[in-house]
C-alpha cells in the first residue's frame, strides 16, 4: 500500500477526471459526485483486495496451479468505480478480466479461478448476483448484453445492463452489431470499454483513427471518455449512464482510458512490444496510489486502517491459495449440464455415448 510517487497535471482533453494523479479532488461541470468517508474507504478497500487477489492468481499460475491467468493489474479503478455504480438489480456481462467487477458483485473470488484451473465452466449461477459468466470469445458478450437489455425494456423493468470489453474487442463485428441493435431499439445498456492501450501486442492507434468513445456518435448515442485510473470519475460517469438507461434514454459508450500494467495473460511477454518508459509513465498514474494519497490528505487512512487492510489482504491471499489447491477434479459429466434450459434429446444422446466411452476404459476395452 505504499504510494508510488504520483504526477500532477491536468487531464487530457475530453477526459473526465475527478481525482488527479496526485490525489487532489477536482470538479467537473457535468459529472458531480458526493461521496462519504466510508464510501471512499470502501472503494479503496475494493481496489486493494482486488489487486491482492489478482497477484495471488498470477503467482498460482506461475506455480502450475492454473493453466492461464489474465491480470487486471492497473485497471482496478475502472472496474471498481463502474461496478459500484450499478444496482443489485442491474445485470452485468463481463469479458474475462473483470475481477474487480466480480468482487463488487459478490462473486467469491475462488470461483473465478476454477475455469482457469480447468475444473468448471464458470463456477457460479449468473442469476445469483446478476453477473454473467466470464466470456472468452472476444466481444460476443456485447451482443448478449444488448439482447438482455432489449428484453429488460420490453418487460418494463427498472434496471439496466452493463457490458464490459476491451479496446481490442471494438474491432470485432459483434461489438459493432451490438451498437446498432442497442441504438435502434433504445436498449438500456451501458457499453463499458476498458481501453488499456494494448490488444495483446497491437496498440490502439493501429485499430482506430479516432478516440474509441467517438464511435458512439455514428450510431446515435453518447460516448464519454473517462480517466480509467480515477475511481471517482468512473463511478460518477457510470452512474450517469445507468440513470439515463433506466430513464429510457438508451445506450451509452464509456471509454475508460487506463493501462494494463501486467501481461495480457500469463502466456504473454509484454516486454517484447511495450517500451519501459511507457510502463513507468503509467505507473505514476496508479489508481490505488492516487486514492491512497487522497485518503491520507483527508486524514482517512491512519495506521490502524492501513494495518487492518493489509491483514485482510494477506488473509484473502491465503484463502485463495488454499481453496485452489483443494479444488477437486471435475465431474466428467458436468459439461452436459445447463447446455439447454429444459434439456435436449441430442444432449442426452451425447451424454450416453460419452458414458459408454468412459465405461470402456474400466471394462478394459479402451485404448
Walkthrough of the structure:
The structure is a single chain. This protein starts with 14 loop residues before the first strand and ends in a 5-residue tail after the last helix. A hairpin with a 2-residue loop joins strand 5 (198-199) and strand 6. By secondary structure, it is of the alpha/beta class. The chain is globular, with a radius of gyration of 21 Å. The strands form 2 sheets. Strands 1-7-8-4-3-2 form a 6-stranded parallel sheet, sandwiched between helices. Strands 5-6 form a two-stranded antiparallel ribbon. It contains 13 helices and 8 strands. 42% of the residues are buried. Mean pLDDT is 94; it is low at 1-10. It has helices at 37-62, 76-85, 99-104, 109-117, 126-129, 140-155, 173-185, 215-219, 231-246, 276-283, 287-297, 303-325, 345-362, and strands at 15-16, 91-93, 161-166, 189-195, 198-199, 202-203, 223-227, 252-257.
From the structure above, extract its key features.
single chain; 367 residues; alpha/beta; 6-stranded parallel β-sheet; two-stranded antiparallel sheet; 13 helices
